[in-house]
Amino acid sequence: MLRWIIMLAYLMLCIPSTNAKDKPEGRIGDLLITATGVQETNTYETLAGDHLPTKPGFHTVLIALAIRNVGKYSVCANLGATLEGTLGLESKGWAHFKDNMRVAYINQLLPGETLTGWFEFPDIRDEIRPVKFRIHQHDSNQGCGMTRTIGYRNEITIKLANVPQPESAGR
To answer: What is d(CA 54, CA 57) in angstroms, rounded to the nearest whole number?
Structure first.
């Protein structure tokens, strides 16, 4: 009987599980960041909040996110994002979190709280397809008024092929 248990345990270790790299999420310090949708659209949002059509031959990529504080303390952090596309494209995006602000500054996200929003990447040529999404924290501190260093890992990469493409990605 013990031999069967050992053999079963060995087989379970050998069976490939869901690859964590294929999940559309990652952690930066106490922030669990999940890409919940990706959408390509023919509009972009102006600083005034108006939605206008893109230039002919271009489109906008929207990546919706849920950011959850999985730690024990409030989190303050400044995030940035880069879209990697086919044909070697890299494009910086801007965030839409909390009342349509165009900054990805997280202020006092309490333990267990989730913030939702999206990053917008305008002016992408129609020939370019989005491939990966990199999100990073600009510094290594997630403390709100105190220093709480998150260590060396302050960037995650999410393969967009693993992210749902709903009707609306954050809008």
So the answer is: 8
The residues, ordered by sequence, that sit 6+ positions from 70 with a Cβ below 8 Å of its Cβ are 27, 30, 31, 32, 111
pTM for this predicted structure = 0.78
- In the numeric block, which tokens belong to residue 18? 């869901």
Count of domains observed in the chain: 1
Q: How many helices (H) and strands (E) does the chain have?
A: 1, 12
| 7 found inside a domain | no
pLDDT in tens, the chain (171 residues): 444 333 333 333 333 333 455 789 999 999 999 999 999 999 887 766 788 899 999 999 999 999 999 999 999 988 999 999 999 999 999 888 765 455 678 889 999 999 998 999 999 999 999 999 999 998 888 888 877 777 666 899 999 998 987 654 443
Does residue 39 form part of some domain?
Answer: yes
